[in-house]
TrEMBL record:
PANTHER family: HISTONE-LYSINE N-METHYLTRANSFERASE E(Z) (PTHR45747). Residues 471-589 form the SET domain. Keywords: Coiled coil, Methyltransferase, S-adenosyl-L-methionine, Transcription, Transcription regulation, Transferase. Pfam families: SET (PF00856). This is Uncharacterized protein. Residues 622-649 are annotated as: Disordered. One of its GO terms (molecular function) is histone H3K27 methyltransferase activity.
Amino acid sequence: MCVKRYKNFQYRGNKEIKFAEFQGTSMNKNQISKEIDRWKNKIREITEQFMKQYPKVVEMESDDDEDEIEEGYGYKIAHENVKIPDEETLIMPYVNENVDHDKIAEILQKTYPSIVGYHKNEYEISDRCFFHVMKKCLEEVNKSKLDPKVFYHSLYLIFPIRGSPNKMSQIFPSLAEKFDARLDALTLEPWNKDETDTKKSFSSHGNHFSYCVPFPYKVDDSKCESTECFRREDRTTPIDRKDRDGLLIYVKKSVNIRGREHFLPFMNHLFSRKDSDFCRAAKKFETLGTCKELHEFVLGLEMRITEPMEAFPRKLTPNDRYHFDQQKEAFEKEIKKSKQELERLKRGVDEGTNSQEDLEAFQSNMKSESCFSSCTDPCTHFGPCGPGNEDCSCKNFCSPFCQCDINCKLRYQGCECKPGECETNQCDCAYQWLECIPGRCTNCCSEETKNSKAQKLVCKNTMLSRKAVPCLLKSGKSTIAGTGAFLTVDVKKGDCVGEYIGHHISTEETDRRDELYKFAANNYLFQLPNGQGNLDGALIGNATRFVNHSSKNPSLSPTYRNMLNGNSHILFIAEMDMKAGTEVTIDYRYPKESEKVMFTYNHEKKAQKYIDEYDEECREIEKEQRRKNRKRPHQRTKASPPRKSRGVC
Ligand SMILES: C[S@@+](CC[C@H](N)C(=O)[O-])C[C@H]1O[C@@H](n2cnc3c(N)ncnc32)[C@H](O)[C@@H]1O
C-alpha cells in the first residue's frame, strides 16, 4: 500500500456532515444542511457554466502535484526534507482488491475522525476551471456574507478528491498564483484574516529582536475621538519606511524591559493584531497616552537604534569554557547514573524482583545523550541571561539555539577543534549532535580553512550547511526484504554515505501515520531526537529510504545533526570499510516483540492480521455487553425492587 492518491479510485467512505466542525455558527443542524444543499446546487451551476468555457483539455496541471507520483515506483526523489503540516483528514489509502477497505476505514476512523473516502468528483474539470469556479463562488460568498465553512464543505462534497473542507480553504491562493498572478487572493478570503497566525513573535537579528508592526493606514480614522489623532499627521513622517504597510522595529536584547513593563500589554495588543490600530490601543490603555503619543513611542523604539548589529561573537574566555565543561561533566554523570539504574531494573525484571511497568516507566522518562544541547528551552527574552533573570529558562548554560544577545556570557561559543577533528564526540559540537558553526567554531571553520584548497582542511562537520552531503547509495533487489540499498563506491569506516530524506512531520502526525502504515508493506518513518517529530520517506526521499534492517551486524549507523535554525537531519555513517555493491543495513531498534509484525513483508497478510485482531476485539466487546445485559435484570430484582414511576405514589 501507499498513501498515493489514486485519482479515479472510488471508495464508499464517510461523507456525512460533521456538525461539530460548524461550531460557532449561528445556524442549527437543519439550517446548515439546507445551506449546504443550496450551495451545492449553486456550485454545480457555476461549474457547468465554466466547463463550457474551459473544457477539460489534456492539461498536465503541475509536475509537483502529489497525485502525479508515479505508480509502482511510489516516491519522488528529493534532496532535502520538506516540513509538512498535520493532516488530520485521511484520504483513504488503497491496499489491494483482496482486502476489505470498509473495515480498514472503520479501524482508521478511531485515529482519523474524518476519513475522506474516494468518492468521485462530480465533475472532471481542470485546475484552471476549478480556479474560476472557486473565484466566482468566493465573490458570491463574500457578497452574501455566508459562513465560509458552509461553502468549503459544499465544495468538498462536489469535489472530494480535491481535498478536505479544511484543505479547500487553503488552495485558492496557490491556484490564483498559477492562473491569475495579478489577483490578490487574500481580498477574496476575508474570513482567513483573523484566523491566520497573526501573533507576531520576536525574530532574532544578532543583538536585536525585531518586530514588524503593520500600520493601520488603510483603516477608516473617523472613529478616533482624539483631536490629535496620529493619522492626521503627515504620513510621510520622519521614518524612512521600507515597507509600505509596516514598520520594522529593532529593540536591543540587552535592554532590560523591566521598569517599562506597563508598555508590554500595549505592545502585545498592537503586535498581535493584523490591523495594528493605535487609536484602538490608546482607548484600551488609556493611562499610557493618546494614540499620537503611543505612535511616537513605537517610532522612537526604532529611532533608538544607532549602533550597527554585531555579526561575530567575542572569543571564548577560559572562564566560559570552564562553565561549559562543567555542565557537560554534570550531564555525563547523570546519564551514566541512569544507565546503571536501567541495567539494575532490567536485571530485576529478569529475576522477578521488578515489574516490566516500572522498567518501561523509567525508560520513557530517561534522558538520552541527545538531550544535552536542548535540555533547556531555548531562551528568548530581553535582558541578560542567567539565574538573575526570571524570564531566562537557561539558569546555568545557554543552548546553541538560544536567541540571546551575541555577547551573552552563558552562550555556547562553538568548539575548539582543528579541522578534521570534529567527527568524534571529543568535539563539543558533535557531542551535542550539532553541526559546527562558522563564525563561532573559529578553528575548524576559520576563514583560512574555508579558503584552503586542500580539501582535507575543510571541517567535515559542516557538510549539511555546505550542502555537500553525498548519496553513495542506489536501490536494488535486496537479499533481505523487497528493495534494498547498495553502495555505489568503496567507502571507509566513518564516511557519510547519505542523508535520510523525507517529509518532516510532527509527533502527533507520526502516531496517526503509524496506525495507517500498519496496513502497508513498508514503513518509512524515521524518528528525530527530542520530540522533534519524524521524517517520513514514504512519498519523497532518496536511496537511503531502501536501507533494510539488521540487528546483528548493521553496516551503517544513523547520526543526528542539528542545525542552528532548528532543523534536524539524519546522516548514515559507515561502521566499517566496504566495497561498492555491498547491501547496507542499519539497526531499526524496533522493540523485539513488534519486530515480527513490522517485518511481515506481505502487506495483504499484515492488513488482514489487523482486521482479524479488530474483529476479535469487537466480538469480545459484544460478548461482554451481552453478559452485562443478561446480568442486569437479575441483579435488579435481587438488590432493589424495580423503580416506580415518579409522581405515582
Ligand atoms: C525503510 S523500508 C526499507 C526498504 C524496503 N525493503 C522496500 O522495499 O522499500 C522498511 C521496510 O522494509 C522491510 N524490512 C526492512 N528490513 C527488514 C528485515 N530485516 N526483514 C524483513 N523486512 C524488512 C519492512 O517491511 C520495513 O517496514
